[in-house]
Amino acid sequence: MSPSSVEITDKDHWRKEIPLQKAIIYIGCDPGNDVVLDPAHGAGVASRNVQLLSLPVGGLGYRLVNLGDAEIRSGSSGDRVIPPRSFTDVADGDRLQLGDFVLTFRLGADVAALAAAPAATAVASAAPAPGPSGGPPSTTNFTTATSIGMSLALPETQLAPDRPLEGSVTVRNQGSKLSVQFKLQVEGLEPDCYEIGAAPVLFPGAEKSVVLRLLHSRRPRPLAGEHRFSIRATAAEAYPGESAVVSQVIRILPFYSHKLAVISS
């Protein structure tokens, strides 16, 4: 299986080849990106300029999302224009002009395997690994519809009265519709038992995580013990009839409330 890579040429014709080893890759001048285009070697690159997402199994290549505010030129001869917040598919040999840098993609058979990685992770997460310091297990759940991808990540599965449980919900636009407004709905928990961030607006191939905070009710309901809840992602206008759902079992610890009565004799 030949590995995929991107060859980077800067303004002084200095070249460097970087392997593409992830299903989602960020490119920009900020050091936190997967592929960093150092400002010392060229200008004109946004802090997080490009997102690459491996195409579904059966397709060989990446989907490129322009996260910047300027047009990007792509294609084997740079003849395709990618406006801001839009996307195109990248194939083997395609060149990308980012400011003073030229990126040439060499894509191998490993790209299709990367696209299948979330499904493999979902199977592995069926047996959660121990949490930090030997505590309750952390967990990650994945689900996918034709156009909507979704995952839920929690640091542990035990909810205590004095310690909220904070995780994240990630939504991915796997379809072709632009500027899709998603909706997130929590099922199986009372409204005062959770806080969830605003659902994202996403372009094709893009994804975003929002914060999910679980709170102990400190009431008789829900009962202490194992409890299942679900989160549903929909986009009724863009993808009518479609939804993605993740569910998770958490263990709710007891809450003891005592009253002290003083009786004088």
SSE arrangement:
Layout: E1 5-9, E2 15-19, E3 24-28, E4 35-36, E5 50-54, E6 62-66, E7 72-74, E8 80-82, E9 87-90, E10 95-98, E11 101-106, H1 110-115, H2 117-124, E12 139-144, E13 148-154, E14 158-159, E15 165-173, E16 180-181, E17 183-187, E18 194-196, E19 201-202, E20 207-214, E21 225-234, E22 243-252
Care to describe what's here?
The chain has 2 helices and 22 strands. By secondary structure, it is mainly beta. It has 2 domains: 5-114, Tumour Suppressor Smad4 (Sandwich), CATH 2.60.200.20; 118-252, Immunoglobulins (Immunoglobulin-like). The strands form 6 sheets. Strands 4-3-5-6-9 form a 5-stranded mixed beta sheet. Strands 12-13-15-20-18 form a 5-stranded antiparallel beta sheet, with helices on one face. The longest helix has 8 residues, at 117-124. The radius of gyration is 23 Å and the shape is elongated. The model is unreliable at 112-138 (pLDDT under 50).
Which descriptors would you attach to this protein?
single chain; 265 residues; mainly beta; Tumour Suppressor Smad4; Immunoglobulin-like; five-stranded mixed sheet; five-stranded antiparallel sheet; 2 helices; 5% helix
Whole-number radius of gyration? 23 Å
Q: How many distinct beta strands?
A: 22
**Percent range for β-strand residues:** 35-45%
Q: What is the CATH superfamily classification of the largest domain? A: Immunoglobulins
Strand order of the largest sheet: 4-3-5-6-9
- Low-confidence parts lasting 5 or more residues at pLDDT below 50? 112-138
Q: How would you sum up the global shape? A: elongated
Broad structural category:
mainly beta
Which CATH architecture of the largest domain?
A: Sandwich
What's the CATH class label of the largest domain?
Mainly Beta
End-to-end Cα distance, whole Å, is 86 Å
Mean pLDDT: 80
| CATH fold assignment of the largest domain | Immunoglobulin-like
Oligomer: single chain
Helix content: under 10%
